[in-house]
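Morning. Coffee machine broken again, so started the prediction first thing and wrote up yesterday's gels while waiting. Chain of 364 residues, entered below exactly as on the submission form.
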Amino acid sequence: MNRRGFLKKTAAGAAAGTLGFPMIAKAQAAKTFNWKMTTTWPAGSPFYQSGPGSAEAFAKKVEAMSNGRLKIKVFAAGELLPAFEGFDACAAGTVEMNHGVAYYWAGKTFASQYFGTVPFGMSYLGQHAWLWEGGGNQLWEEVYRPFGLVPLPAGCTGVQMTGWFKRPVNSVADFKGLKMRIPGLAGKVYATLGVDVKLLPGGEIFPALERGVIDAAEWVGPFLDMKLGLQNAAKYYYTTGWHEPSTTTEIVINKKAWDSLPADLKEIVVYAAKAMDLEGLLWLETKNAEALDELVQKHGVKVSTLPPDVVKKLKEATADTLSSAAAKDPLVKKVHDHYFAFKKKHDFWAKVSETHFATQVRDI
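Came back before lunch.
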């Protein structure tokens, strides 16, 4: 009888255990997460803060895809933190996420800038092939690991405009003493040519340009620039795309928070970021075409290209700036060499595909 009783109890216990595993898995799957995300963008800023490709769009997509298991409350610049303090807050665990661009953190690690955009570097196809499929994201994780952060590409503007100038640029000499809002590697390059570089968040650009605190500014491109009203503060609008050929927005995630997510939610976050990567680009490409026409036809904006000798000097200064930084820091050199090795291979393909079509075929 004792043996029978033991066997019955053992069988019952095994059955309960077997039944329990799905219950435990179900309980884990049912766990919800409520996160905070700060951004570097003004409230309502299209593409960055609100609308297609934005921080808010990302949060909505994650909540919908996870059936409400991961909810992200998004705070614009100034609502919870000043524009450029989200990186540190995320590293400290004060918030779980921050949305910005990697070149804003150049003061913390020079290597971060390669993941935002590189002057005279790759356009969208090359840059994002490098990030997602060419090992770029893995290097990015290595660069941010000391800060306790996990990075993800989460949007792209495509080629940006050189910017708005109160006076025309006819030669390199016109940069001497020019006060310009310009972030990232391009700012360092301009500084070597005598530009007084200013780093301002988006919400401060128009008043600074209008009041003459700065003489020139770059933001993104026709649609977003017009939204800031920059056409009302300067009339000379330059293009070449030299400084930001593929500006990539990022989401950084606190590593401990990231590790707390189950595998399926991690996958949802990654694919929501990939969705923003494409969604924002396509939306902005559409809007830029409409806005450029309006700027020229209705606002009298003069669209010009920088003189070839100016572009050549900027390219030389870029090469010097990058090689100098790589020589001083092994991590920068590692990222630099990896980026340009990928670029060399991709350039050959791009030359016989996209570039050939754009320069030799399209306008025949």
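The first strand starts at residue 33 and ends at 39. Going to sketch it on the whiteboard this afternoon.
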